[in-house]
Amino acid sequence: MSDETSTGVEITLNGQTVLARPGELLIDAAERMGTEIPRFCHHTRLKPVGMCRMCLVEVDTGRGSALQPSCMVTCTPNMVVDTESETVAKAQDGVLEFLLINHPLDCPVCDKGGECPLQDQTMAYGPGESRFVEEKRRYKKPIPLNENVFMDRERCILCDLCTRFAGDVAGDQLIHFQGRGAQTEVNTFPEEPFSSYFSGNTVQICPVGALTAKPYRFKARPWDLDETESTSMVDSVGSRISIESSRGQVLRLQGVDSDAVNWGWLSDKERFIFEAYEHPDRLTSPLIRNPETGDQDPTSWDHALEAAAGLLAGTDPDRLAVIGGARLTNESQYAWAKLAKGVLGTDHMDAQLCDGLPAHFMLGLPRATIDQACTPGGTVVLMGPDPKEELGALYLRLRHAVVHDGVTLIELTPRATGLTPYAAHSLRVRPGEAAEVVRSMFGEGGVAPSGGITPESAQAAGALLQAADTVTVLLGRASLAEAEGPVMDAALALHDRLPEVRYLSLLRRSNVHGAIDMGLAPGLLPGRTTLVAGRTNLAQAWPGLPKETGRSTQKTLEAAAAGQVDVLILLGADLLADVPDGDLARRALGKVGTIIALDLFGTATVARADLVLPAAGPTEVNGTFTNLEGRVSPVSRQVTPPGTARPDWMIAVDLADRLGTDLGFTSPEEIWQEITEVSAAHAGLTEQLAADPREGALATGALALYRPEPTEVARRDAYSFRLVASRSMYDQGVFTAHSRSLSGLAPTTCLAFEPTDFASLGVEAGQSVDATGPRGTVAVTVGPDPRVAKGTAHLGFNQAGATATEFIDASVPVTDLTVVPR
Amino acid sequence: MTTEAPAFAAGFINNQGPKLITGRFTIEDSFTLKRSLATGGYDGLKKALARPPADVHGEVRDAVLLGRGGAGFPAGVKWGFCPEGVWPRYLVVNGDESEPGTYKDRLLMERDPHQLIEGCLIACYALGLSQCFLYVRGEMALAQERIATALNEAYADGRIGRNIMGTDFSVDIVLHWGAGAYIVGEETALIESLEGNRGMPRLKPPYFPAAIGLYGQPTIVNNVETLANLPWIMNNGAEAYKTMGSETSPGTRLFAVSGHVNRPGVYEVEQGVTTFRDLFYGDNFCQGMRNGNDLKAFIPGGGSAPWFFEEHLDLPLEARPVGAAGSMLGSGAIVVMDHTTDVVKACLRLVRFYARESCGKCAPCREGTTWEEKVLRRIYEGQGRPSDLDLLEDIGDNISPGPYPVASFADQDLEAVPFPPKQTTICPLGPSSVAPISSALRRFRPEFEALITLRDSIAVSAAPIPEDA
Amino acid sequence: MSRFTELNARRAHEIISHYPRARSAIIPLLHLAQEQEGWITNDAMTQIAELTGATAAEVLGTGSFYEMFKFHPVGRYLVNVCTNISCQLLGGEELLEHAETTLGITDGQTSDDGLFTLEDVECVAACTEAPCFTVNYRYFHRATPETFSEVVAELRAGRNPMEKGQQGDRGEIPDHGTLSRTLQHIPADRKAGIVAPEEAAQAPSWMPTETGENA
Ligand SMILES: Cc1cc2nc3c(=O)[nH]c(=O)nc-3n(C[C@H](O)[C@H](O)[C@H](O)COP(=O)(O)O)c2cc1C
Ligand code: SF4
Ligand code: FES
User: Fold this and answer.
1) How far is CA B196 from CA A546, B169, B357, in A?
2) B174/C128 Cβ within 8 A
3) Quick count: other Cβ atoms within 10 Å of Cβ A762?
4) Fewer CB within 10 Å, N or C, chain C?
5) What is the pLDDT of residues A82-102, one digit of tens each?
6) Closest ligand to B222 CA?
7) Does residue B186 belong to the interface with chain A, where contact is any CB pair within 8 Å?
8) Domain extents for chain C?
């Protein structure tokens, strides 16, 4: 007699005794044992529905053998399972025949042909010929469910995968079954498209060709595709992807199931962004400013590198700065850090664009992984941007944790987020007031409501935190119109009250965590160490290390505006679009001596550069990526860069060469080798990465907790509104703008107010007002929005309609606006 | 003496024999609270409230009150499946009566809503159920009206709601009605529907919503007629109940006899005592076949039940022997067909019903039932092919492998639940479509064949259907 | 815009208050919308979605599962003729044919004057009273072609035909959409307390606890 033990459940599978995992579904256990049971509606990341009936097998639990859907049956001790009996074969044959009777069998023109489970299983298990002679169901040919996803209803086998994904995973039940019985179809509500940031996943999981994505429709046949597994560099989640290309062109990105990260899901931005990489506007050759015409003229690499080396050789390291680098792989970042700090001798290097939090602060906080944050029954505090808007795949993990795994969510955000409907407490916090709200949550703030919240509701949330075993704080900049200081103060306020608290960084920009770990921050060196502490270890590899801690981006821009920067190197940094204080960015760029820009596109900032070096894109390079957990995973090259564009690390190596220095490596592999040698945080990761590239390997190590001086925030007067500026999934960012599928999705923003606040303005929605802040008066259209907190005004960042950067003054911690109807 | 019931109780026939649940059917204003109270209404509840809840449950268990919704599972046993210590628990009354041939719950709801309400209250008291939903079929406007009025009266009179009849016992009963979908009668589909969803059955296990039901809570689903028996049982006790009917099927049942008999109607009949022959031919009952015709076939328990024939006439109206003979009493719907009946047409009509009513959740039922209908229609319209009969049987076999599942007689333990289910589907609707086909084909194959050969003798249209395409 | 009238909006809230979860009210609210307009408009579904916390796609997903809900205008009178087995045996199909001729429309169609929509329906639970038809869900038992014609004539003439209908069901036949003419009201002082299941996780007061004491 075997019993369920922690090691497993003994079952008999086709005559053999095997060990299933406790609670494991029969279909999954069998697959692990090498017995593939055919299926259509089963998906390991979705709740089973047992609808298609393809996975029927004979199961005997002691009461006689019965046909049971193996996707619904949990393995129990001594279960006897037959997946190959005649009864099973007949049932599967029958189910397949049923599924095919109304299927159009238009495989030759179907995008799914060649990778279609229905096609494959018909070959393997199906009837030879159809006995169905009647007319099949007919529908109007493909209907668009949204801009990018199309539905061929006659191919649909009603497996509920797309609809379950939309409801259970994305929480956007905008597609649903309609009708009944044989008339059932999947569709949207009339005139209400499937507007979900995650709609592309439905195309990926559709087991037939019913759902197709516009960028891929009729582009290729699966057998023509070459694919490689890589890591998405769209945001800092680092979702695993497969890059699929044909004849040197990327045609499709698919999600890959990394258990620790994205579970196979992608946001549509991650999925369709490759169109930007393939865009004809990519920079294909170096450009140099013609002193006579002022134009940026194409030039050779030879000439461009010579010019760059000439500029750099004669520059005082203190008058040289490097901004950006989050777009780069770890290896490229390392190469550039070594060039800047170890060769050129400047520490004025920062990958963040005044829109994040200081690297040494982040490295001083105890860290959590996504899995730790999502531990069933745990507690999570969101004190940062809306993950649904900025970190799509992470949002799906968090939503799952809260909705399905009993994680308690407490929000301290200035505006409602995509997670608000699931939050136990959702406290609206005005910029600059979060630390105060934390104090009132713990009963320290007297009776005065802070942040527009009553002490009772704050304390109810605080009580939950005090009772929780471990709390994970999701930390980032919820508003770009709020300086770093108040955010750090609030993070520390929680730290001081919750001994077991951990933090998951919501810094969003691509490989920003790699940049932090590679030393692309003032005062830091690779391996989560400081300029002071790491000096001896690196002295040999990095001979030119500067003595003094350098400037952050903000300080560099201020210095530049004061005429103190001669050469500015931009590593994929679009300062004019991304720096919240637009005035500062403009003044700085206007005063810099020379600008060298490495980029993929000629952005407005790149247009200001004297020397432009075209860089390779994320699907064109090998290397590694570090996600917001500190998880390192491989990035793989699948296609070649356009024109003569080169990987960023190579540009650093070539430039060093012109400067007479050998950086000591000539490939990403060699750079990685050096990283693991000089960085304790990365030592030993090579083996782990080789063993499981899909799950990656966590870099470890931390700095001592950093406590900045508390930031004084002036009280808001009753007549003004505190500005909240936040990003949404789609904006005018250069990649979204160059992806045909995504560019049309970017919204238009207006200055939005909480509805009663808005009513008190006495203007109509869509009307224009004069908004006055520290940077002067700007005319802007206004409207109501229930997501906005009282006493605040919200603007989308980097969106059409209004420019938030016009309002923000980086020298004050918050931006208060007064509004006058025009 | 047998009397026709008055016309307002449409179809009810006031035959001889005990009247446990139809006692008020002959009273014109039977549906009012006043009349109900004047004729002993709510006395059963009063008796129940005087006893501990567990006692009331025990009494029902002792009475072996079999469910009248179709599966015939003993109510008292099913009630015991509520997991201990899990609250709240709900009662859902299944008044979705839609099985072809079934007509009894509508009468019970229209004629005596207070009896049903009293039954609901007794069940709620016994099990600690904190809310009851009366799910009435959407098409039954009058039943809805009578129940709504009855509920309003009973609430006003302190018989529902807070502190019922001055006791601690408090429960709300809410009237809810459907919107036209036979499958919603299946108890898990009923719960889905009540949650505001498409009425698609849930996967088993759990085999009973008593474990996990409405809003994921323990939920008892009982048929209207089942609950209507509770006042009598409370008033008279399990022992008295068991003196009627047979040992394994005590008490009476409502049978709706329709079709080719002289006096179709709804009869309250002692179970196990009366036979089909008595029912069809007895003076007290249907008084024979119309025009003295011969019996061709009859359906003993609703459209989903395999058909019976002449040789089954002497079976008693009792679940066990009927089950043993390969069919079921199901919902108490008996449809009688005389020798003039076109069985192909009847079969097609029943199969069309399942094809239309399939919820669409599982492939074999959704696609199989529509396919069955198409093949049958082709045969009926003279376009059949000789291979079609085997095809029909094989489609049936792919929906319901092996012998057609018959709701096995439910004994007092869980083992009696039809298990393992012989079906490739989630619920028995798909397999139900196979019952008429396999019954009719087994007995009347030549009639099908005659239609098929007929086709060969008719000039076939320009584009003949290819043989075995 | 066909949103709920003020009265119906109040009724909608009352209906929602009968359920532990608002979503359970989707079907009753669809009935209410159909009662107001005779059919279910997109606006109505959007409003029901708002009221119940579902998406409009879910409301349509639920509604379209049930055949009583009509997503396009139908006649003032929905005439349903049962042709299922018991009725078929006694002339249901012939009655349907007669209905088609009398009304000049076939299954699913609406007469030009907008008065009648005809449907060939499944068993309506009147099997012993076959054949049978319903008008806006009011029953006409043991129907003959003659009774059918008379009922239609009465309706066309603006008269109430329930004299010929089910005994005991008296009163006007309401327009399509109205089912029960009486609605359930739960007086506030009688309500036992309808709350979300998470708020009722204790044994009710009258149930003895494990120790045999009343809770
Ligand atoms: C397809 C299908 C339709 C059903 N329809 C009804 C019905 O209309 N009324 C009913 O009471 N039970 C119906 N049932 C049975 C119910 O699922 C359930 O067994 C019954 O309501 C339990 O009540 P009881 O135990 O009191 O009989 C149906 C079952 C199936 C599979
Ligand atoms: S058998 Fe038919 S009715 Fe039952 S769940 Fe499957 S599809 Fe739905
Ligand atoms: S995979 Fe099991 S029923 Fe579809």
Assistant:
1) 68, 28, 19
2) no
3) 8
4) N
5) 999 999 999 999 999 999 998
6) 1
7) no
8) 6-67+177-200, 77-164
Ligand 2 atom closest to Cα of residue B423: 1
Distance CA B121, CA A737 (A): 65
Contact indicator for A102, A182 with CB cutoff of 8 Å:
yes
All residues of chain A having their beta carbon less than 8 Å from the beta carbon of residue B369 are 181-182
Instruction: Centre a 10 Å sphere on the Cβ of residue C87 and count the other Cβ atoms it contains.
Output: 30
Chains that touch B (3 or more CB pairs under 8 A): A, C
CA distance A440 to A437: 5
| Cα–Cα distance for residue pair C28/C21, rounded to 1 Å | 13
Burial of C101 (0-12, 13-18, 19+ CB in 10 A): exposed
A189 and C54 within 8 Å at the Cβ level: the answer is no
Of A431, B182, A447, B144, the C-alpha closest to A439 is: A447
- C-alpha distance from A323 to closest chain C C-alpha (Å): 45
Domains of chain B in sequence order: 10-241 (3.40.50.11540), 252-338 (3.10.20.600), 343-449 (1.20.1440.230)
Into which CATH architecture does domain C77-164 fall? 3-Layer(aba) Sandwich (3.40)
Tell me, yes or no, if C164 comes closer than 8 A to chain B by beta carbon: no
Distance CA C165, CA C151 (A): 9
* A461 closest CA partner among A382, A369, A405: A382
Whether B424 and A56 lie within 8 Å, measured CB to CB? yes
Per residue in A657-690, pLDDT (tens digit) is: 999 999 999 999 999 999 999 999 999 999 999 9
Report how far residue C92's alpha carbon sits from residue A448's, in angstroms, rounded to the nearest whole number. Answer: 75
Contacts of A181 in chain B (CB under 8 A): 355-360, 366, 369-370
- Reported confidence tier of residue C171, pLDDT bands at 50, 70, 90: confident
Phi-psi group of B292: left, alpha or beta (phi > 0 → left; psi -120 to 50 → alpha; rest → beta): left
DSSP characters over C104-160? T--TT-B-TTS-EEEEEE---S-GGG-S-EEETTEEE-S--HHHHHHHHHHHHTT--
Residue B84 has a CB neighbour count (10 Å cut-off) of 7
A196 vs A148: CA distance, rounded Å: 11
Q: Which residues contact residue A407 at a Cβ distance below 8 angstroms, ignoring those fewer than 6 apart?
A: A374, A375, A376, A377, A378, A379, A380, A398, A401
Q: How much is the ipTM here?
A: 0.94
Q: What is the DSSP letter of A812?
A: S
The string of pLDDT tens digits covering residues A728-748 is 999 999 999 999 999 999 999
Residues of C contacting chain A (CB within 8 angstroms): 42, 45-46, 54-61, 64-67
Edge-to-edge strands of the sheet including C116-121?
A: C116-121, C77-82, C133-135, C138-140
The residues facing A177 across adjacent strands are: A186
Cα angle: A555, vertex A558, A564; to 5 degrees: 100
pLDDT, position A450: 64
For A579-726, list the strands marked E by DSSP.
Answer: 594-599, 611-614, 623-626, 631-635, 697-698, 721-726
Is the CB of residue C124 less than 8 Å away from at least one CB of chain B?
yes
Does ligand 1 lie within 6 Å of residue B94's CB atom? yes
Reported as a pLDDT band with limits 50, 70 and 90, residue B16 is confident
- Whose tokens are 């075997």? That residue is A2
| CB of A41 shorter than 6 A to ligand 3 | yes
Question: Of the candidates B143, A522, B165, which has an alpha carbon nearest to the alpha carbon of residue C206?
Answer: B165
Which ligand sits closest to the CA of B405?
1
pLDDT of residue B403: 54
Residue A286 host element (H or E): none
For domain C6-67+177-200, the CATH architecture is: Orthogonal Bundle (1.10)
Task: Give me the sign of the Cα torsion angle B251, B252, B253, B257.
Answer: positive
